[in-house]
Write a structure and sequence with these properties.
Largest sheet: 5 strands, antiparallel
Strand content: 5-15%
Shape: globular
Number of helices: 12
Low-confidence stretches: 4-10
Number of domains: 2
Structural class: alpha+beta
Strand order of the largest sheet: 1-2-3-5-4
Distance between the termini: 52 Å
CATH architecture of the largest domain: Alpha-Beta Complex
Mean pLDDT: 92
Radius of gyration: 19 Å
Number of strands: 10
Length: 331
């Protein structure tokens, strides 16, 4: 595997490059056996992706900027991509440099929102998360620590400090975050994805599930991945209980299960807060074009408007629905 872990080893791509220049850079990487063919892959909300065909092999090249605004570390992206690949939950990493990863292509498709109500799919996702969260031993280099409450506060503060047009609205979240945080118990940190939208789960043609896109990968709380995934499913208690039952060990007692479920609902509310505050930031700073954002939204998310503002409204509406159902537990 060719993988560079430091920005100083080569100049790397730049934020102001055109798509054509990005493609020329990717085509010229020293890892290819032939002159590769690139095809744009629609789907990223803050990144650009290509399917790269090199002879009889295919790969996905992923370009991502705006890391500082979102609290993302290139070192952590590399560490989590490598570790997840090593434990078999993510495609193999072929190449890395700042802002660019190249991984094996999976012949399959992304999970849909509708499939999050399929118990077989949900059980398979929980099995993948069990493996991921037990994979801390595979980390070989420095990695971020992610506490969702801190991540949300930092996104809100970024909007305020940079005078985002959304700053006044997202600032209302800060006292709410303080109240919810008190409902979380101490926990054992684990290797976590921290951005597990349904589109970041691939179903291979064989039926195997893969986790992809490790921009927010870090050491974190296991419930964050469960709630991030099911945040895109209809909100109902039976699904939450089923997913948690699949995830937790068989010998967990009823009292501990109910306490963990309570924390899961806190985490679910935090997932919607994260979606909301994240979209407020990227609406003000992201480098990709409105046309690319619209294409990705239309392909993957059921928002009323195919834009970051539409994503914000989607998150806020789902938060309100969840709060009406469970908010009384956190008064």
């Amino acid at each position: 595997m060719n993988a560079s872990s430091t920005a100083g080893e080569q100049p790397g791509i730049q934020r102001d490059w055109s798509k054509r220049r990005l493609e020329d850079h990717i085509s010229g990487l020293p890892i290819w056996q032939t002159r590769p063919r690139l095809e744009v892959l629609v789907g990223g909300l803050v990144n650009q992706n290509w399917v790269v065909t090199d002879g009889d092999r295919k790969y996905v090249a992923r370009v991502f900027f705006d890391a500082e605004e979102m609290g993302v570390s290139e070192q952590s992206v590399l560490a989590t991509t490598r570790a997840a690949s090593e434990i078999g939950v993510s495609p193999k990493l072929k190449y890395f440099e700042p802002h660019l990863t190249v991984v094996d292509f999976i012949e399959g498709r992304n999970l849909t929102e509708e499939e999050l109500t399929d118990e077989t799919i949900v059980a398979g996702c929980m099995e993948r998360l069990q493996t991921l969260h037990a994979g801390t031993h595979a980390i070989r280099s420095p990695i971020n620590y992610c506490w969702r409450f801190l991540s949300n506060r930092n996104l809100v503060r970024w909007s305020i400090d940079n005078k985002s047009p959304h700053a006044e609205e997202v600032a209302k979240m800060l006292p709410f975050l303080d109240g919810l945080e008190k409902h979380m118990r101490p926990f054992i940190p684990c290797l976590a994805h921290n951005d597990l939208a349904h589109v970041n789960v691939m179903i291979e043609n064989s039926g195997k599930l893969w986790l992809i896109d490790w921009d927010f990968g870090a050491i974190g709380h296991p419930l964050t991945d469960l709630s991030d995934l099911l945040a895109y499913a209809p909100t109902y208690e039976e699904l939450d209980r089923y997913a948690l039952k699949c995830y937790l060990p068989d010998d967990v007692g009823e009292e501990e299960f109910e306490r963990t479920l309570h924390e899961y609902w806190v985490s679910l509310l935090m997932s919607y807060c994260f979606q909301y505050s994240w979209a407020a930031v990227v609406d003000f700073c992201v480098h990709i074009s409105p046309e690319e954002i619209e294409q990705s939204m239309e392909a993957n998310f059921s928002a009323d408007e195919a834009s970051y503002k539409g994503f914000m409204k989607m998150a806020k509406d789902r938060f309100d629905t969840t709060w009406k159902r469970y908010g009384h537990l956190f008064d």
